[in-house]
Fold:
Amino acid sequence: MSYNVAFIGLGVMGYPMAGHLANAGHRVTVYNRTADTAQRWTAEHGGRAAHSPAAAAKEAQFVFCCVGNDADLRSVTLGSGGAFEEMEPGSVFVDHTTTSAEVARELHAEAESRGFSFMDAPVSGGQAGAENGQLTVMIGGDADAINRAAPLIGCYARMQARLGEAGSGQLAKMVNQICIAGLVQGLAEALNFADRAGLDAQAVIDVISKGAAQSWQMDNRATTMIAGKFDFGFAVDWMRKDLGFVLDEARRNGAHLPVTAVVDQFYSEVQALGGGRWDTSSLIVPLRKMRES
Structure:
């Protein structure tokens, strides 16, 4: 079936995700804070560019969103000209932003009071996953709305799953980021160790990546870490934002996260070195700086 769809936020993730919806035959209206980006998207994919989130959401059966943080999400939903002003009864708002679980629950309750559905659906897979339609989507919200949205999410996801009520998708994304933080730090330390031990780090990776140490991070980031290339991928600034959500939630639920807290501080060192926009695999940079000093 073809639906009237809105997509709010055309960053490195949202731009290709909206494109997959258009390519699947849905009628897509887009909104982006930088209007030139929306115009470029429509020139490439067709559809229509709206002047506000509310205008994009008008008459849409499904509204998708992928913006920066809690404040951005509240602005495009509840702010002046926000999408919630024009959401139709029975429609579904699918939020792919990585936010706090608190704001997801807040917006779910607000949507319910207005007669439509809200689901928190953060993603993993990065820019390449979005471009290739291979994202993993972690979802919280009402089962009926999630089932209705599933075929559309399938336009750009290889895996999607409901993990519980509102906020559960965001909590699952926090689990994802805890895993990534620890894995990348372990890989950074391993590569630094190999270098200091006089080993050919790439040759070592070629061997151990076929054993129990293998991971997505090793397969996709080890070679670029060895080469010192970090001008791509998921930015350190965004990872620190995500880990802030993780550590705040842990303080509430009592989870002990000693490794995550330390890695968050290591990322702050990368930021201090001017690497806020570097890929998260740049955790190796402070280790190399320590050797130089």
